[in-house]
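Exercise 7. Given the encoded structure of a 705-residue chain, write a plausible sequence.
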């Protein structure tokens, strides 16, 4: 369809009409709102255009409007409620902390959101209606958020944020941060004085959710789905608690990575520098660097609860110094407010069965991947292979539009000022998103280096590829393309070879934590990284940053802003994971639409856009390179336009010509010269690609190898 492509090309480069007066007015208005984000400003202008703004000018009116939804009554109480938290610093005192009550919030958003209602109906069709004997599972996540400058000494607005969602929605749906609801935001200064600290806070939340007047597991939550005449009853039970190692440590009151026993799942695992390993003649204890799983004895829910009960008994009979030693030996800390000592939660919270490590923090955030790259680069330094060479190679690559920003792609991470620190610490220190985007491109660089100079690889490059295998497997787990047995195989193989090559010194407790991921996958059928929670922190920081007075009602003010914002977003959100246009153009080019009708027919409805979802995990945009499977042939195509034809999504694309296979890139080398114009159905697209062009030849690599 050459004519279609000619019209698209002309329309894409046409100039906008000159509107100097209107643009000057918009620019002046934008300057008067310096703290509003650009996207919020655009939404503000769109709302002002669609309907008149309300005549509200007083602060009291704004405050009352903000409290309307949180104070709304539902069959399960108001959307915002308060929970008591016992105080440590005042005998008999309590903190009254405002929370976004989960079941009233679920009742409200289901009635208001067509997208969430559709997702619930799809989940009911896929996994069946929940019952008291087979309820849907709820997941909780907690993390500390600091909206202020981390370099300043004062952190009065630092708070603990807790989110919840429903696991049965699936890993793809749970990658939408809109589906995670903020149940509470409690300042760190308050948590510090709560009995049991974060363990006490999470215990109070679980009691509020599952031990109140209404039992969501036996009685269910009756929700009215948007546009449906009949209500649906959802039976819900607690299923998983996830987070980084600091969060898991705080909730379960373990001694953590710095303690004698760094893992709450292993009863005979000791820190690699523990003296008990030296004096243990019976051979009971094993080092935290042990990779032979048969030597490790695992805790159960009963043994962990028994340890806390034992500490409770010893607390009143042992001297303080002796009791500290007892806690270190058992690997847990005693507190009367522990979530594991609450009699109401004995049948609800199972510490071992319910706790799941976040593999993003274990692998990417100064974790296994960072140390592996650091050790490899230190080994390659005598061979004149430096971070500068790697940075020059990475700078030639282009990422898909969805991760093309500097923060997501990591394209600007290689700065000379960082190299010295990376070599000194023997760590490749980047953000988690940067590492995840960089490692497929880095694998091409080291594959070329190994092919050109085989003698350079004394083992480091091989272990880098084994680490990449682990990252590949973890991403395939969410897509149901990797079993727990396959995941265990790649993890154990990597750990065995790493320990053989680099020894035990570089291995941190995070190397051990990933050993538990296969078992966690078997128990829950789902593990996912917490990238979306880190993204969600930015919403909370934006509102918390505007609250300067922390002397009173900080939690209430922040939570009211978050609740109103989230209900507004969920009302308009589309959680459909089927192929669809992301943002159809409101006024598409008439010439383009007319030319498309020549191909697709004159009796169809045609919409066009610049990006579209092609699978439950993938979004592609104009200008991206994608790998497509067309009639059994693998093609690399450059996308020109996204098209919706009566609900079926197509991409207008330019198919490159295959040149040949490559030892360094499994996707091969392609030539954009003499490309063929094709229409590709969205379901035929396999993945978006990262690519590098040199001498009219394009080398491409998939997001995970």
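Solution.
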């Amino acid at each position: 369809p050459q004519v279609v492509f000619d019209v698209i090309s002309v329309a894409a480069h046409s100039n906008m009409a000159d509107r100097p007066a209107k643009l000057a007015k918009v620019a002046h208005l934008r300057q008067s709102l310096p703290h509003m984000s650009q996207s919020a400003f655009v939404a503000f202008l769109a709302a002002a255009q669609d309907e008149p703004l309300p005549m509200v000018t007083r602060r009291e009116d704004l405050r009352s409007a903000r409290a309307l939804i949180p104070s709304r009554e539902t069959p399960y109480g108001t959307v915002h409620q308060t929970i008591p938290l016992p105080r440590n610093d005042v005998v008999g005192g309590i903190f009254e902390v405002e929370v976004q009550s989960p079941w009233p919030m679920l009742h409200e958003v289901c009635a208001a959101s067509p997208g969430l209602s559709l997702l619930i109906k799809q989940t009911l069709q896929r996994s069946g209606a929940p019952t008291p004997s087979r309820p849907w599972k709820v997941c909780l996540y907690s993390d500390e958020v600091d909206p202020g400058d981390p370099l300043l000494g004062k952190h009065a607005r630092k708070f603990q944020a807790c989110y919840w969602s429903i696991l049965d929605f699936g890993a793809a749906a749970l990658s939408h941060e809109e589906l995670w609801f903020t149940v509470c935001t409690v300042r760190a200064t308050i948590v510090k004085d709560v009995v049991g600290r974060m363990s006490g806070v999470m215990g109070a939340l679980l009691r509020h959710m599952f031990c109140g007047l209404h039992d969501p597991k036996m009685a269910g939550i009756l929700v009215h789905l948007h546009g449906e005449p009949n209500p649906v009853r959802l039976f819900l039970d607690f299923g998983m608690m996830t987070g980084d190692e600091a969060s898991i440590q705080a909730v379960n009151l373990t001694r953590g990575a710095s303690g004698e026993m760094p893992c709450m799942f292993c009863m005979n695992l000791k820190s690699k520098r523990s003296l008990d390993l030296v004096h243990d003649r019976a051979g009971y204890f094993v080092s935290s660097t042990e990779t032979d799983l048969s030597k490790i004895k695992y805790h159960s829910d009963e043994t962990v609860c028994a340890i806390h009960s034992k500490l409770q008994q010893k607390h009143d009979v042992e001297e303080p110094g002796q009791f500290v030693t007892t806690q270190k030996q058992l690997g847990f800390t005693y507190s009367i407010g522990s979530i594991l000592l609450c009699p109401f939660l004995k049948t609800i919270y199972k510490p071992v069965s319910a706790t799941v490590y976040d593999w993003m923090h274990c692998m990417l955030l100064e974790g296994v991947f960072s140390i592996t790259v650091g050790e490899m680069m230190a080994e390659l330094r005598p061979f004149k292979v430096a971070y500068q060479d790697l940075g020059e190679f990475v700078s030639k690559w282009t990422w898909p539009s969805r991760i093309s920003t500097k923060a997501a792609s990591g394209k600007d991470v290689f700065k000379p000022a960082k190299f010295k620190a990376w070599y000194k610490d023997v760590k490749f220190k980047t953000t988690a998103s940067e590492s995840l985007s960089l490692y497929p491109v880095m694998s091409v660089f080291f594959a070329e280096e190994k092919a050109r100079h085989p003698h350079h690889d004394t083992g480091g490059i091989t272990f880098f590829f084994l680490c990449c295998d682990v990252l590949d497997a973890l991403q395939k787990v969410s897509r149901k393309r990797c079993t727990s047995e396959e995941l265990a195989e790649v993890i154990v193989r990597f750990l065995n070879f790493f320990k053989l090559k680099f020894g035990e010194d570089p291995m941190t407790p995070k190397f051990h934590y990933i050993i538990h991921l296969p078992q966690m996958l078997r128990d829950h059928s789902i593990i996912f990284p917490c990238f979306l929670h880190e993204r969600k922190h930015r919403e909370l920081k934006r509102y918390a940053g505007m609250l300067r007075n922390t002397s009173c009602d900080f939690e209430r003010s922040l939570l009211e802003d978050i609740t109103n914002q989230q209900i507004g977003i969920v009302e308009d959100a589309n959680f459909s994971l089927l192929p669809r246009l992301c943002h159809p153009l409101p006024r598409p080019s008439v010439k383009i639409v007319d030319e498309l009708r020549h191909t697709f027919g004159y009796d169809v409805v045609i919409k066009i856009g610049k990006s579209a979802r092609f699978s439950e995990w993938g979004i592609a945009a104009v200008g991206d390179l994608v790998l497509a499977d067309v009639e059994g042939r693998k093609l690399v195509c450059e996308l020109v336009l996204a098209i919706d034809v009566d609900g079926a999504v197509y991409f207008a694309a330019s198919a490159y010509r295959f040149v040949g296979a490559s030892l360094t890139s499994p996707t091969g080398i392609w030539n954009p010269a003499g490309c063929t114009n094709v229409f590709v159905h969205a379901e035929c697209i396999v993945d978006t690609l990262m690519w590098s062009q040199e001498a009219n030849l394009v080398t491409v690599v998939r997001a995970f190898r």
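Remark. The mean pLDDT is 88. Students should compare their own answers with the one above.
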